[in-house]
Amino acid sequence: MRDNFKYRNTYIQIFVILATAVLVGQLVNLQIIKDYSDQADDNAFFRKTIYAPRGLIYDRNGKLLVFNQPIYDIDIVMKQWDDLENQGNPIDTTELCRVLGIDKDDFVRKLIDIKDRSKNPNYSQLLPQKFITQLTPEEAAVIQEVIWKFPGVSLVSRTMRQYTTTNAAHAIGSIGEVSRAVLESEIGSEYRQGDYIGISGVEKQYESILKGRNGLEIFLRDVKGRIQGKYKNGTKDIAPIGGKSLKLSIDIDLQAYGELLMQNKVGSIVAIEPATGEILALVSSPTYDLSTLIGKQRGKNYSILLGDPYKPLLDRPLMARYPPGSTFKVANALVFEQENIISTESRFPCHGGYVVGSFRLGCHNHMSPLDLPNSISNSCNAYYCAALRKMLDDGKYSSIENALNVWRHDISSFGFGRKLGVDFPNENRGFIPDAELYDKKYGRHRWQSLSIVSIAIGQGEIISTPIQLANFCAIVANRGYWIRPHIIKQIDGIPLDTAYTNVIRTRVDSQYFAPIIQGMQWAVNGGGSGSTARIARIDSIIVCGKTGTAENPHGGNHSIFIAFAPKDNPKIAMAIVVENAGFGATWAAPIVSLMIEKYLKGKISDRRIWLENNMKAANLMPRLK
Hints:
The protein is of the alpha+beta class and 625 residues long. The protein is built from 21 helices and 20 strands. The radius of gyration is 32 Å and the shape is elongated. Mean pLDDT is 89; it is low at 28-40. The longest helix has 43 residues, at 2-44.
């Protein structure tokens, strides 16, 4: 028995030793032999990247917005330089600096950066390294004549973005050199230092589709590293595959008009086609010219934009956060109807505002009491304060906390307080409060409906983004449903993601939208007991809109307006925020109505040219402290 046990131990020990030997052998093969093999392979071959052109970008009507222009980079192979220096025949760097148009200090700095693995983690002395980028064809032609004097130096052809428009910078987005973070990420193997990648906008969101796939040419080297011709007559070369082209949903003419009207103003405009969710315009003001972020001046120009106190790089339609003001009354009215708190005929008194004891929330003068459609057209604060308190204090929810959470659930179905899931980077979610927030703020069971009544008129803790407001306006235009807003209309050979074609229904039944739309129609066109946006009226087009004036603790109130048109079978839904500009009817409403007229009619009527001129000429840039 002991002998059997002894033999068994011996067998186990032999097995462990053999297994260890196999593992060590494999490790040696992977880490040492393979390294030598790779090095020998790199000594024998020279691999030249053939860069794929990025896909083109068009607007919804087929107008070319972004194309490619040839540029050239200078690559160097450090191994060949080192070998020449070791042989006592170093490269004439003074002459090379003269040819390249750089001074000796800059030359040395570039060499140090190339070899610095903290900046260039994929550095190899055997592989081509980016030395100078973005040479024009004219600059490259001069260098091409003398490049034979400098072994290891090569000209590499690639393309750089060019633009047919100065508009839609935030929508299109910029490209830039790939960062170290990307090189070290999961997708890092798809790039090398000096490659370009989408930094913002569509260029970033659809990078994998736009970038294509680079090709490769393989050349044979001799023992001195000199190129001897194509490996296997080029049969192992890989042809580049260009990126796929994109057709945006943006109407570049409408976009340009919106930017013109928003010049010398801070804010944003979003226009959506209600039936499809396609974004027609995405205006962020102030804006910038994408052509300033290409070429050798990119870094300098980017720093200027970054330091601008008016933040032209901020994508306001998706990232800026504002109280929605009175535009939010439309959402509240729909929820109150759905919850059977009010009906079309419900009326609440207004005595120059909402008054309870010593509490007063002001309102402008209008007839009183008002029914539901007229509460919209007159934008009555007291109506919505009373209706909100009625819901929160209604015993059918068993507690104010439950009532508020039901309200929040209904409101959130309009897309407020959460990301809409647009096909665009950096979307903000906004904020809609819940009972837990007020428990923390006031103490559990220590807050009442009057404590939070400001949310009835889109103030207090409520925060929205311009794209959320535009999407909500599209929901009203559609009488209760929406399609996730998106900026891509078509991709070559790829069907649109179903996320941007599926219908999303709100928690409010379609029957409740009619009186709200009636009130929005009266607000612009008259017909009720009063209106707040008559300046937005357009001949022969029924525009339905709602003004908002959002309180701003950091300066003047924001001017806000949402609108869609025509009333039946709507083609466009819009939201605008003009920061620090005051009443919604003064600036926001005219700008939106001009854009609607331009989009639906193709021109501005003679009788409204004065209004267009006033909007274009107005300088509403807020003073910065």
